[in-house]
Design goal:
Structural class: mainly alpha
Order of helices and strands: HH
Radius of gyration: 18 Å
Number of strands: 0
Length: about 70
């Protein structure tokens, strides 16, 4: 993997984190707004946890791809 491709791939990670946090946060707030009858959701917001897990998976895939395409010595 070239250095340019590595930089591009790593620059996408923060954007991916923000996008996944935004989507999961919106899903959480929409769920709370559209409550069914008198039921209440007792769980806490876990948007940051989901975004972090998704970003970690993305970075693990990056490391695997980088390992597969090593530069020839």
């Amino acid at each position: 993997m070239s250095k340019k491709a590595s930089i591009i791939y790593l620059c996408i990670a923060p954007l991916l984190f923000l996008l996944s946090w935004y989507i999961s946060h919106r899903m959480y707030t929409d769920f709370l707004q559209n409550g069914v009858g008198n039921m209440e959701y007792q769980g806490k917001e876990r948007s940051i946890m989901y975004a972090t897990a998704f970003t970690v998976i993305y970075l693990v895939v990056f490391l695997v791809i980088k390992d597969l395409y090593r530069k020839k010595a």
